[in-house]
Design a protein that fits this description.
single chain, 88% helix, 0% strand, mainly alpha
Amino acid sequence: MAKDYDSQLLESVSVRRRRMRDALLFGVGRVRRTADERLGKTFAGLAVAAVLCAGCVGWSFIQHTLAQQKAQQKQQQQQQQR
């Protein structure tokens, strides 16, 4: 009888830990989420990442272009002073 109680207790603790881990990882509505919903969230995440990457590339391009223009202006000013 003691062994049954111990095994039940250990199994109960194991189930509780698994449920807590799942709640932490997947949230309250983990059962209600479908594969389509997860797939949609994955594509949305990829779209956001792509937009952020494009923004970083655009910002870098603008900075590079402005730095080139500034260097050209400096060079023109030096040539005019000579």
